Amino acid sequence: MHEALAVNPWVALAYLVAGVCFILALRGLSSPASSRRGNRFGMAGMALAVATTLVTHDIASLPEIAGAILIGGTIGFIVARRIAMTAMPQLIAAFHSLVGMAAVLVGAAAFLNPEAFGILAADGLDIAFNSRIEMGLGVAIGAITFSGSVIAFLKLNGNMSGAPIILPLRHVINLAMLAAILALVFLFHADTPELFWAIVVLSFLIGFLLIIPIGGADMPVVISMLNSYSGWAAAAMGFTLHNTAMIITGALVGSSGAILSYIMCKAMNRSFISVISGGFGAGDSDSGGAAVAKTDRPWKRGSAEDAAFLMSQAEQVVIVPGYGMAVAQAQHALREMADKLKEHGVAVKYAIHPVAGRMPGHMNVLLAEANVPYDEVFELEDINSEFARTDVAFVIGANDVTNPAAKTDKSSPIYGMPILDVEKAKTVLFVKRSMGGVGYAGVDNDVFYRDNTMMLLADAKKMVEEIVKAME
Prior knowledge:
2 domains, 18 helices
């Protein structure tokens, strides 16, 4: 008898409580102020779900399972303790790959031993039709998540160019492979292992092909998209295992990841289809991209002393962090600079663009690490109207998210993307390494050359530390 048809009511209740904990976790993670509480709810829910599964299921060797949990938990703890905040995006991509591979391995185990999983049809000769569909889809999504996440990790970690790798006829190839995978999901049986493994191979391949055409500019969307994929893979495997907790958890992760992907696409004025089609984001020239800024235009260069004087005399300073701040690990120095400004009676706020950095919420995480007060951090829609009343906009390592070409240049690849209106401030202090670099979209930023802009060319952390010294 299928476990789903005879579930212990206490098990159902435990899984329900775990699901509620996961919902509260997502609710808590919606705000930096409640994110710690959200994480605790998530940990409690997962602990309850795992404990319930171990206690109520027939497991061949509980010590082996406990040993695996201990090994995995130890590795996760060590990695979490040692990982730099700047490497968090690639860590997330790596974790997504593990979820995808887990789905593939569970599906393969169920296919090789369907009787142990209780998924045989009534005649006992084949896998039940609904279980074949659930298993096939779970394995396919898991394999796509794994290979796609590996490519995302390599791009984010610098092992592969962040520029799009455009293959000829890629759309035709991808559609043909997706059609083949769906057909095989409906056609494979217990006695056709070659069709099952064909699903696995094709899914691994299409995951690779889907991500390599996507450039660095779209990486925040890729991270949230892969997060959604991993959730749906887990949900499909939950049906195969008749595990309510996995179904609930996978559905929550899948739907929340899809919603986040939509929000990220909207913030970039991009459609989800155009992102997964790839070909956008030429890569950062500082890391090997071909694009360069138009340095023949006149611009003004400033010093740390100039910046310290201008900000100390201001009534309000709005700080706009970007990935350059993350690379330089300047968030702690930035917090110290903000504290100095407050001592001078200056109001300090932080403006966060939804796609600043390489993953959703990247800047919020870095600022939280530096103990920046949550009530000083504002999203784009809440802060944009204040730039016109701001004395100094201090942009540190951000580029595309402040580029006015998004509003004025219809030929620009970022046209239509909502941006932070830093150019409306009385003075813009723009910190970047050199005038030769551009953002992930590979386009020059007109703010560099405006009369109210002063360029501060240096490593972000070094420049901020010099500003702090000048204030003293």
